[in-house]
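Hi R.,

As promised on Friday, here is the backbone we talked about, encoded as C-alpha cells. Could you run it through your design pipeline when you get a chance and send me back a sequence?
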C-alpha cells in the first residue's frame, strides 16, 4: 500500500492543475462571460492568474482574472508619501476607484510605517490590493538605505504582506531575470527600482532579492498572492 500523501492544494494554480474549479474561477468565468473550464485550463497553464489571497477572500474580496482572453484590468495607484501623508485623501481615491469600476488598488505608500493604511485597505476594499515591499522596507526596518540586507527585505516580505492579505506584490526586473533565466531589459520606471538598484550596489549583489522569490514560490503563506516584475506592472492601465 502506498504511503505517499496527497499534495496540499493551496493556490489557484494548485487546484487548477488538480482538475478542480474553485469558487474564484467560477466568479471570474461569470464576470468574463467564459466557461469555468476555460478559466481552469488557463490557470493551470499559467496563462491566467487569479491574484486572490485567501485572507482577503474571507474579508469579501471579489476575484479577478488577469491574462489570456480576459478583459483589460484597470489599476489605481495611490498611497501615503513623505510629501503628502493624508490618509483621508487617499481613501477618497479608493472610493472613487470602486465607484468607477476599477479592478485593483496598488498601494505605493512609502513613508513611515504604512501597515495601518494597507491593512485597512485590505479589510475594506473588495478590489485586488498590490504592494511594493521595497517601499516599505526602509520605514519598517528603521535603517538607512545602504544598510538594508536581503534578510531585512525578506522579513518585510514574509510577515507584512501575504499574512495581512495582500494579493499582488511587485519585484524588480533584475531579480526576475535571474530567477527565470529570461533576459529582462527595462528602464528604471519607479522609485522602488531606484531603491533596489542602490541597495544592490551597496550589498555587492544584483540578485539579493532571489531568496525572497524562492520563498514566495515555495511557502504556503503566500496564499494565492501573485508577484509581477515592475516593468510589467508599470505597463498596465492605471489611474493615478
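Update: got your reply. Pasting your designed sequence below so it's all in one thread:
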Amino acid at each position: 500500500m502506498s504511503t505517499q500523501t496527497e499534495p496540499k492544494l493551496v493556490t489557484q494554480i494548485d487546484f487548477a492543475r488538480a482538475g478542480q474549479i474553485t469558487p474564484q474561477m467560477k466568479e471570474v468565468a461569470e464576470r468574463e462571460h467564459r466557461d469555468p473550464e476555460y478559466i481552469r485550463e488557463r490557470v493551470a497553464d499559467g496563462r491566467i492568474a487569479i491574484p486572490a489571497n485567501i485572507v482577503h477572500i474571507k474579508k469579501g474580496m471579489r476575484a479577478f482574472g488577469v491574462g489570456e482572453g480576459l478583459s483589460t484590468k484597470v489599476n489605481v495607484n495611490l498611497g501615503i508619501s513623505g510629501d503628502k501623508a493624508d490618509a483621508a485623501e487617499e481613501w477618497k481615491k479608493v472610493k472613487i476607484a470602486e465607484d468607477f469600476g476599477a479592478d485593483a488598488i496598488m498601494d505605493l505608500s512609502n513613508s513611515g510605517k504604512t501597515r495601518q493604511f494597507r491593512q485597512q485597505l485590505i479589510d475594506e476594499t473588495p478590489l485586488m490590493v498590490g504592494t511594493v515591499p521595497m517601499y516599505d522596507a526602509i520605514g519598517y526596518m528603521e535603517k538607512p538605505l545602504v544598510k538594508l540586507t536581503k534578510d531585512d527585505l525578506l522579513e518585510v516580505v514574509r510577515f507584512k504582506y501575504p499574512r495581512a492579505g495582500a494579493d499582488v506584490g511587485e519585484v524588480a526586473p533584475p531579480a526576475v531575470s535571474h530567477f527565470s533565466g529570461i533576459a529582462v531589459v527595462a528602464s528604471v520606471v519607479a522609485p522602488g527600482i531606484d531603491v533596489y538598484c542602490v541597495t544592490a550596489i551597496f550589498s555587492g549583489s544584483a540578485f539579493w532579492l532571489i531568496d525572497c522569490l524562492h520563498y514566495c514560490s515555495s511557502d504556503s503563506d503566500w496564499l494565492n498572492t501573485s508577484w509581477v516584475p515592475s516593468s510589467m506592472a508599470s505597463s498596465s492601465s492605471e489611474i493615478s
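One thing I noticed while checking it: The first strand starts at residue 48 and ends at 49.

Thanks again,
M.
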